[in-house]
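Severity: low
Component: inverse-folding endpoint
Summary: output formatting inconsistent between runs
Steps to reproduce: submit the following structure tokens with default settings.
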């Protein structure tokens, strides 16, 4: 894994090889000091922030809620998970206010409930730490 320099390809390959129905759909690079990095900055993958989808939250085949006003408790195809593998917190947010900003604590996992479907590649979803804001990098689906 250390020899792969293209993170998108690495994470895509992990999704294919694990075949565990938990997919890395986007990520933000981060170094060991907690600094968020733009996609083109080379670094390791040991401290990254991952956006994940699973059975219920998968955008393509996840749970479709037909009356969202009545069902606000269950995960659906518009939601996603955030895994912060770093020892530093991070804020995740949406420029379009599709979901409220959330703080993800160090080594934390949090479900993010969204108002409507969206594209990870649109530049709407961002992570922020100590005044640095970076949009997530989408992973192409296999």
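Observed output (run 2 of 3):
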């Amino acid at each position: 894994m250390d020899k792969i320099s293209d993170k998108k390809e690495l994470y895509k390959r992990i999704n294919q090889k694990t075949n565990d129905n938990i997919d890395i759909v986007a990520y933000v690079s981060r170094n060991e000091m907690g600094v968020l990095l733009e996609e083109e900055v080379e670094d390791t993958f040991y401290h990254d922030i991952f956006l994940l989808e699973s059975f219920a939250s998968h955008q393509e085949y996840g749970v479709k809620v037909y009356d969202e006003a009545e069902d606000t408790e269950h995960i659906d195809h518009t939601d996603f998970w955030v895994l912060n593998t770093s020892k530093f917190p991070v804020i995740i947010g949406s420029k379009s206010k599709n979901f409220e900003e959330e703080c993800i604590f160090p080594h934390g996992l949090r479900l993010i409930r969204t108002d409507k479907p969206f594209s990870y590649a649109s530049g709407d979803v961002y992570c922020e730490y100590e005044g640095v804001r970076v949009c997530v990098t989408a992973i192409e689906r296999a």
